[in-house]
UniProtKB/TrEMBL annotation:
Belongs to the major facilitator superfamily. Sugar transporter (TC 2.A.1.1) family. InterPro entries: MFS_dom, MFS_sugar_transport-like, MFS_Sugar_Transporters, MFS_trans_sf, Sugar/inositol_transpt, Sugar_transporter_CS. Residues 12-461 form the Major facilitator superfamily (MFS) profile domain. Keywords: Membrane, Sugar transport, Transmembrane, Transmembrane helix, Transport. It holds the Pfam family Sugar_tr. This is High-affinity glucose transporter. One of its GO terms (molecular function) is carbohydrate:proton symporter activity. The keyword Repressor does not apply. The keyword Membrane applies. It is found in: Membrane. It is a multi-pass membrane protein. Its main location: membrane.
Amino acid sequence: MKIPKTYNPYFMAVIATFGGALIGFDVSSLSAIVGTSQYINFFGNPNGVVQGAIGSSLAAGSVVGAALAGPASDRWGRRDTIFVSCFFWVIGTIIQASTISTGMLIAGRILNGVTIGVTSAQVPVYLAEIAKKDIRGALIIFQEFAIEFGVLIMYFIGYGASFISGATTSFRLAWAMQLVPCLVLMAGLPFLPRSPRWLAKVGRLEEAYDILAKVQANGNRDDPVVVAEWQEITLTLNAEREALRGWRKFIKNGMWRRTLAGISVMVWQQLTGANALIYYVVYIFQMAGLTGNINLISAGALYASLIIGTAITYVIVDKVGRRPLLVLGILGMGTCQFVVGGVLGQYGTYLPDGLDGNLNVRVTVTGAASHTVIAFSYIGMLLYGLTLAPVPWVYCAEVWSLETRSVGMSVAVVFNWLCNFALGLFVPPAFANITWKTFIVFGVLCFAGGIHMFLQYPETGQKTLEEVEELFQKGAKPAWKTRVGQSHLDEKVAEIKEHKQEEAQLVEDIVRKHD
């Protein structure tokens, strides 16, 4: 029996971005648990490199998943590749929920990471290729919404489970709940259509055109928007097929600029240090003097601020554009990192034996200094939700050509998860050894990223994916002179409408003369 399909772009985005919910669930599956007595006692008070290995194991698996996602997606399609990857999640979650050792926990997180690598690389590609240009940014941001809601929901699941008596029941139950979003994703994916651009790429042109018409114009194959966009897709695809093959297509004829932009935007997202705050917010708030339930609830509120920021960006990203949000956001986050690091360095008390035996927390502040650290942590996370959390996923999905998009996005996500892995491994030892200087390092990286973005990232908002190619060609405008909109597609649509009116008028004149 053929499974019916839905072509509502928002419904498609909601289902597809349950892949983001998987990321959120696993990202925060440790956050509310690492500070509990059950976790500390069962796993032998992990700290430093050991805790770093547990935290970063998710990213290690994600590197593998992202590397496999591009070739698999080109061969079997975006939708089906995402579906198959879910089986790694099911196995990994079962292993985590039944863990009896640190090694088993790490193995389960690595398997979950494989699924996350695939979904983080291919869900934005799928949404970018199927969405209308005017709402493409908003739809891709659904992915980030799902991540953040996943983070928040899983965090409070872990927080609530921490009150369950018993040595291991609390974290086993919390980790088992990670199955829920995966099962929803697997149930919903068969109802989604394939990407029309992928279908065109593999030669299934009639099916591609049919889906494009259903998504863009409720099935009207003669709609001017459908006709104009199909012309762009086919012309661009034919040109790309005559271009270089293999790895050279990522660097020749100006493609190196797009490759650099796609990879670097994902790298800078990680080097802001925001994910260090997401993973280890409990430690940072302990540095600010918060302990017990107050610490855990405050950390949950921090995740809520992340969602608030992204909700605002969902509304404005296709109007304001990608470039202003990226540049201003990373500079603002850098300022917050400098403030937090400066306050901890100036007013902090060094604890050589850690805070209450927690060797990951070796500096603490009180009073006004504590309030400042907490306030700028919230501001930094709000800015991250507004800018660097959602927008890099949008920008990276847009800058590639059709021939390079799936593999290019996978390469960019590999770099993203490599940085995530490195930071997850680096931050606990950094907190233990250089304490407040960790935040200064992130602040410097933020300002370096802001300069690079200002000079090299052109605006892609409200342009078709095919038009984005022109922004990176030799002789194109400098990045800082590009603006939202200015799409040629609107002109083509107007020309097609005018041509259809002329044809209709000609037919009417012939009929009149005949009568």
